[in-house]
Amino acid sequence: MALDITLVALLTVFASGVGTLTGFGTSTIMVPVMVAFIPLSETLLFVGIIHWFGNIWKLTLFRRGIHRELILKFGIPGVAMTVVGGLLVFQTSETTLSRVLGGALVGYVAFMLAKGRLQVPQTTGTAVAGGALYGFSAGIFGIGGAVRGAFLAAFDLPKAVYIATGGAIGLAIDSGRLATYWWEGATLDSRLLLGLAVCIPLSFVGAKIAERIVDRIPQERFQVVVAAFLAVMGARLLFFPVAT
Question: How large is the angle between the packed helices 40-61 and 26-34, nearest 10 degrees?
Fold first, then answer.
């Protein structure tokens, strides 16, 4: 089945908006949908570029909230581990990665339902571990913002600080994993390049819409929507993986 660019464009606006509001979600929404139509390596490269620009928009719109100390603690181990994850993408079959990704998504939904009973300490070790796990998840699955968000939430940050700091950390991680994908030979065909030309500015539209409503809609409502979506798409990838 061919990938429809119009569908991707609409998906980009929605995912960018949710990702800006919740601090994560752009890749989490886009990757499971696009991987059903195109190979995982192309999906990760395409969505990674959209995500890279999405972090630029977060920094632009919420620049007052940057937390430099957390950026360093998360970002340094995160960049290192995203390279490791990015290299593994090209050494593992897509069927295996699809199943693991599906299991990870279902597991994350379970975590979201239980997180009210889980406490993460506000320490340097937490930040370093969270950055490493986020970087690895982003590199191998293209989905790591939820991990980053879970660890950043432990620091009880104001929403603007949470979004901007997450954007800065994400920008560093995305730069590392995109360089790794490119180094390993990932490419996009002319149709996907045209899609990028359309979707990059649309990702800003989604972020701008989110900026206007970020203080009006409780984050928990979006998390419920994302959790339901993750459960469905995770089950699909787990039981009906992408064929190699």
Answer: 160
Q: Are 238 and 109 in contact (CB under 8 A)?
A: no
Two structure tokens written together for 180: 């790794």
Residue type, 224: V
Mean pLDDT across the stretch 86-114? 76
CA dist list (Å): 148 to 20, 39, 105, 169? 14, 25, 14, 9
Count of CB atoms within 10 A of residue 36's CB?
A: 16
SS (H, E, C) the chain: CCCCHHHHHHHHHHHHHHHHHHCCCHHHHHHHHHCCCCCHHHHHHHHHHHHHHHHHHHHHHCHHHCCHHHHHHHHHHHHHHHHHHHHHHCCCCHHHHHHHHHHHHHHHHHHHHHHHHCCCCCCHHHHHHHHHHHHHHHHHHCCCHHHHHHHHHCCCCCHHHHHHHHHHHHHHHHHHHHHHHHHCCCCCCHHHHHHHHHHHHHHHHHHHHHHHHCCCCCHHHHHHHHHHHHHHHHHHHHHCCCCC
In tens, the pLDDT along 77-97 reads 988 898 888 888 778 776 777
Q: What are phi and psi of 132, to 5 degrees?
A: -65, -45
